[in-house]
Amino acid sequence: MGTRECNHICDESSPGIGEAGITGEWRIVVPSIDEKKCIPARSNKPTCFLCWLYCPEAVITKGIPPSINLEYCKGCGICSQVCPVQAITMLPEEKM
Amino acid sequence: MKTNAVNLIEQEWILPGNRTCPGCALSLAYRHTLKALEGQCIVTVPASCATVLHGMYPITAVNVPCVNTPFASTGASATGLVAGLKALGKKGITVLAFAGDGGTHDIGIQSLSGAAERQNDFIYMCYDNEGYMNTGNQRSGSTPLGAVSGTTPVLGKQQYQKDMTAIMEAHGLPYVATCSASYPLDLYEKVKKARTIEGTRFIHVHTPCPPGWLFPFSDTIRIGEMAVETGLVVLYEIEDGIFRLTSASESLALKGGTLQPVREYFISQGRFKTITEEQIDELQNWVNARWKHCLHRATNL
């Protein structure tokens, strides 16, 4: 059974970051991590990472402390709600 | 070793800067689904919020191959993909049908039922945001009693939601499970388990929707947890007919099985602004009866 080469009759999209633009511009509140409270930062160990686990946008990187990609963070505030030690606060966006 | 936030795979298949609303539970559930499948899948999505997430030509926000299919044909499309993979002799790739509650409970049920009856080898995932959220929050078969929607704007919906998982269970599937985006590790484990099973596998995911249900973006996880704690959503899996409660529902049952009153859940969302006391009592009785049934069926308590 032979297979034909695709002649690009159908249109295919290619994966790309920022498909909807710089989504950080949607934000009205911006997350800020307090390193004095954040468990990985305080213990200097890779632990907790609940903000990373629950982020719907996948903009948080596991690190000590975790870092947030503010170019694409939409500012939903889920990370501040799930943080067990309230290390993340949502501050008003300055550019507003 | 049990999966937790620390040892869970770091690679992402959902790319930042996609079209989902802030605080979207669908995006969270999809993210962990693709992690569980390690990107080794072909996705088929009907018209839904998931299509919006996937983005507009020529860019897509998801790093897995995906077919956009008409609303009614998700099950048929998945069947075709399975047949195609078989014809090409490709192994180790899971076909994932990812549809919303409108595309599953209402419009897509016939093709899904057909595929399930044929036992075609794919995972069907229904993310349930309890309405046609993508097109303006119209009522679906999964909208709960008393919820205001685009098509029930004054009194709210007057009927109960459809128990799709029970309908799929009745097809005699090898694996049926419910999960919630608020419990991503439970979801991850279930998809991972489903990946190893052959035949049609059905997973129902409860995904709270901030703009549709009218609650703040940051409360998505809390609302999903409340749904489980009040028993409106029960987390379970049925593997070859054996019923097990899992995750938070299992711990609730082990702690004596007392549920939180459903009232709190209704107060927390704007869509229930017109719900009456009688409807709340009615729903509480409905929840209690279903929970009792689940406790009775559970084999792991």
Q: Quote the beta fraction of chain B.
A: 5-15%
Structural class of chain B: alpha/beta
> Biggest chain pair contact, residues each?
A-B, 42 and 42 residues
How far apart are the termini of chain B?
A: 22 Å
How many strand segments of chain B? 9
**Segments of chain B where pLDDT lies below 50 for 5+ residues?**
none
* Average predicted local confidence, pLDDT of chain B: 96
Under the CATH scheme, the architecture of chain A is 2-Layer Sandwich
Please give a quick description of this structure.
Helix content of chain A is 16%, strand content 17%. By secondary structure, chain A is of the alpha+beta class.
Textual characterization of the structure:
The complex is a heterodimer of chains A (96) and B (301). Chain A is of the alpha+beta class and 96 residues long. Chain A contains three helices and five strands. Chain A has a two-stranded antiparallel sheet with strand order 2-5. In chain A, strands 3-4 form a two-stranded antiparallel sheet. Chain B is an alpha/beta fold. Chain B has an eight-stranded mixed beta sheet with strand order 3-1-4-5-7-6-8-9, with helices on both faces. In chain B, helix 7 links the parallel strand 6 (175-180) and strand 7 (201-206). In chain B, helix 1 crosses helix 7 (184-196) and helix 3 (74-88) crosses helix 5. The mean pLDDT of chain B is 96. The chains are: A alpha+beta (96), B alpha/beta (301).
Features:
heterodimer; A: 96 residues; alpha+beta; Alpha-Beta Plaits; two-stranded antiparallel ribbon; elongated; B: 301 residues; alpha/beta; eight-stranded mixed β-sheet; 12 helices; 38% helix; globular
Task: Draw up the topology in text.
The complex is a heterodimer of chains A (96) and B (301).
Chain A lengths: L13 E2 L13 E5 L5 H5 L6 H5 L5 E2 L5 E2 L9 H5 L5 E5 L4
Antiparallel strand pairs in A: 2-5, 3-4
Chain B lengths: L24 H12 L4 E5 L3 H6 L4 E2 L5 E3 L5 H15 L5 E7 H6 L2 H9 L5 E6 L35 H6 L5 E6 L3 H13 L4 E6 L3 H4 L6 H10 L6 E4 L2 E4 L1 H8 L8 H5 L9 H21 L4
Helix pairs in contact in B: 1-7, 3-5
